[in-house]
Specification:
Elements: H1 13-23, H2 28-42, H3 53-65, E1 71-78, E2 86-93, E3 96-101, H4 103-107, E4 115-124, H5 135-141, E5 145-146, H6 155-168, E6 175-180, H7 193-199, E7 205-209, E8 215-217, H8 219-225, E9 239-241, E10 247-251
Parallel strand pairs: 1-4, 5-6, 6-7
Antiparallel strand pairs: 1-2, 2-3, 7-8, 8-10, 9-10
Helix pairs in contact: 1-2, 1-3, 2-3
C-alpha cells in the first residue's frame, strides 16, 4: 500500500522508499529522513530520479550504506569480479557488503563502533552458500569423465566415451566417470556389467551416479576389489544382483 505521494511532484515512488527503508531495519525517523533527502534529490534534473522508482531505490540504499560500517575486514580480498578481481579491504553493514576497495577507501567507513578484523596476508573470499553440491568431493570428481545427460546425448555416447578413455589407458589403469543419471538419460538405460566388460576388458571401470549414492562397475573392478559372486552385502550397502543372484554393475 502506498502511504503518500510527493507533495511537490506527486511521485508515488516516495511511498515505496519509506516502506523500503523500514524493511531495511531503519527506524521511522531514519526512514523519513532518507525519504526526504531522496525527495530533494529527485528534484535535481542532473540526477534524473523523479521518473525512475528503481533509481530511487538505489539512491535510498546508498544513503543507508553511507554511514560507518559495522565491520571492516583487511586482507587479500578475492572479489570474483572481472572489473575488480582483488582489493585490500571490505566493509560490512547489517550483514551486507557495502564497500570493497583500497585500504584507504574502505577505512573511510570506519566509525567509533566499527570492528576492524585484520587478516593481512590472508585471503578473504565471498561467502558461499552450498545448495547440496558436496564441495570437497565434487572438486575431486571433476577430474573424472563427465557422463552426465547434459554432456552426452544417450547411453551409447557415454559408453563410447568410456571406451575411448580405456583405449588411451594402460591395461590395469582405472577408468573413472561421474554424473551418470538414468532418470534423465534418454531411454533410462543402466550401465550393465557386460557392456562395461566389452568396452574395457583390461581396465577396471568405476562410474559414480549423479546422486553419488551408487556406482556402476565392470568385472575387472570386482576382481581388483576382491568381490566374488557370492560375496555378502557390506554393512550399510548392497551389491546389485540379477534374478539369478549374479552380481550386476550396480553398487549401493
Amino acid at each position: 500500500m502506498r502511504l503518500f505521494n510527493c507533495g511537490c511532484c506527486g511521485h508515488p515512488a516516495l511511498a515505496e522508499i519509506f516502506s523500503f527503508g523500514r524493511g531495511m531495519g531503519l527506524t521511522r525517523r531514519q526512514a523519513m529522513v532518507a525519504t526526504a533527502v531522496t525527495a530533494a534529490a529527485s528534484a535535481l534534473p542532473t540526477l534524473a530520479l523523479a521518473g525512475s522508482p528503481d533509481t530511487l531505490f538505489q539512491f535510498q540504499a546508498a544513503l543507508v550504506q553511507a554511514g560507518p560500517a559495522d565491520a571492516i575486514l583487511i586482507g587479500d580480498v578475492v572479489t570474483v569480479a572481472d572489473a575488480q578481481p582483488s582489493a585490500e579491504a571490505v566493509a560490512v553493514t547489517n550483514g551486507q557488503i557495502v564497500a570493497v576497495g583500497s585500504l584507504k577507501e574502505v577505512m573511510a567507513r570506519k566509525g567509533p563502533g566499527t570492528k576492524v578484523i585484520d587478516r593481512t596476508g590472508k585471503a578473504i573470499l565471498p561467502g558461499f552458500v552450498d545448495p547440496h553440491v558436496h564441495i570437497v568431493s565434487s572438486s575431486t570428481f571433476n577430474l573424472f569423465l563427465d557422463l552426465s545427460p547434459f554432456a552426452n546425448k544417450d547411453a551409447d555416447e557415454v559408453l563410447a566415451k568410456i571406451a575411448a578413455a580405456a583405449a588411451k589407458a594402460k591395461p590395469g589403469d582405472w577408468v573413472i566417470g561421474q554424473l551418470y543419471d538414468t532418470a534423465l538419460m534418454p531411454g533410462h538405460r543402466a550401465l550393465l556389467r557386460e557392456d562395461l566388460d566389452r568396452i574395457a576388458p583390461q581396465n577396471p571401470v568405476f562410474v559414480l551416479s549423479a546422486s553419488q549414492h551408487f556406482s556402476y562397475v565392470n568385472s575387472k573392478a570386482l576382481e581388483i576389489a576382491g568381490i566374488a559372486e557370492d560375496a555378502a552385502d557390506p554393512a550399510g550397502g548392497k551389491f546389485g544382483r540379477d534374478s539369478n543372484g549374479l552380481l550386476i554393475s550396480v553398487w549401493n
